[in-house]
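Chain X:
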Amino acid sequence: MVIQALAFYLFAGITVASAVMVVSSRNPVHSVLFLILAFFNSAGLFVLLGAEFLAMILVIVYVGAVAVLFLFVVMMLDVNVAQLRQGFLQYLPIGMLVGIVLLMELALIGGAWVLTPEIEAALGQPIPPVTEVTNTEALGQVIYTHYVYLFQAAGLILLVAMIGAIVLTLRTREGVKRQSISKQNAKQRSEAVTVVKVPTGEGM
């Protein structure tokens, strides 16, 4: 128990410190690197809680894909940090309003456990006992049985968001050849192949 407590405080301390450095760092690349460090330590906290599936998802998806993508985007775009900081005071009231709303939502979530103790029993009903199945198997049973429609709806929302991002960022320029799959499939053999008879001993 002592080792687990020490590991918890170590992971939690590094996570909080990394999160502070993400916000306060002046270099965007350093912010992304500190974000990766925070993700790794958050995964360690999930392992201590027995949620090994969430820990692996956090490392594979967020560290291996999202954070690295952020890093490459920041390095390629060469973001002007000084220009971004000029509008800080302009958007400060809106940011404070969003922060207050988030704090109120977190307070409501925390107060729900105190005001309605039966909610804990209701949430724990569809989850199989920990002694019978593993954490990953229990998560799969819950997602693909009780919440399968919500899971499919989330997938559709992500699909629509991906298509919308592609449509918004798609740019057409004149003079640039683009591939047309429909024209390629509709092309006949006579249009794509030309048979040339070359006499023996002569070139083209």
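Chain Y:
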Amino acid sequence: MTRQTAPFLAVCVGLFVVLSEYAGRPAWGQPPAPMPAGYTIPIIDLDADEGRHVVVDREQGQYLGHVTTVLLEDGKTILAVYPKGHGRGPIVYKRSNDGGLSWSDRLPTPESWKTSKEVPTIHRVIDPQTGKRRLILWSGLYPARLAVSEDDGQSWSELKPAGDWGGIVVMGFVEKLRNRSCLAMFHDDGRFFTSENKRTDPPVFTLYKTFSDDGGLSWSVPEPVWSGSDIHLCEPGCIRSPDGKTLAVLLRENSRQRNSHVIFSRDEGKTWTTPHELPASLTGDRHTAKYAPDGRLFISFRDTARQSPTQGDWVGWVGTWDDIAHGREGQYRVRIKDNKHRWDCAYPGVEVLSDGTFVVTTYGHWEQGEQPYIISARFTLEELDARLDRP
């Protein structure tokens, strides 16, 4: 070996080590090969568990659906909002003071909440200037409207337009950023972003981002993150990496031709990678995720995997951040409840109590031929882990 070739070989060896370490991992911003339509991880079934499911609200002959929740800082108070109807309809508001074991009667709401046109969503935000905690509630379509509570949900403002824009499922999430501002995302298919309500053929789905610097009171003009018609990406759900440096947004694929997708940001939402497919084990609608005390993730969603024995049911996924980042199937799936309808269920709320108990809440057709209603379920990951060895 000559002195001239030695440095070259050293560089080659170094590159080989790096490439070996990252072999099989999708490069940031580069979509990997298409994912299979089915999955291989085991399924734990909670559907028939006696006493597992608590009825949050039910009204004979009335559709109740599309619920979201927020857990207050006392670690036990959960607030829930949902429409009387499929998306559109008066907003119903309830509270649990004991971590989802029981729920209040329907609480009073402002008059304008009766005029909600789309799925309401509720979020905790903190004013970066004053440290003031507040709750915000969104109601979508055009124009997107916003209500505010300054007293942890005891009282609320009327719904007021957030700007001259709108969208579908506003907001899919609201995420606190490292500079203490907030990032939110939603989607539209051309019908509701402006007052003109124009939809192209084929429809073009656009994912938008907007920011708030004043604790959710005002929001920037939404900017496109991604747009396309070959796949229909929508209903974003956000997860921050354990080291806090990366955001992942899981996306529903509404054309039902591909698996769900994911995008990543390493600059607090300023730029995003190209969408790429998730494994079928994570394919579904309205992903909502929280970390367990042991660092694993639980993600709740409606199962829309093309090859799945629980297709159309309310399901959950247990795995790690690295599973998502590297395109792995995860540890196992959970069927929380059997939905007696082909698709319509599971816009879920996911909360984690101080003792590690998950409280998950959603709507579905839980009885054949009946209108959907709201239920919640409780479990720990340790409890689910113990059932992996059972049939």
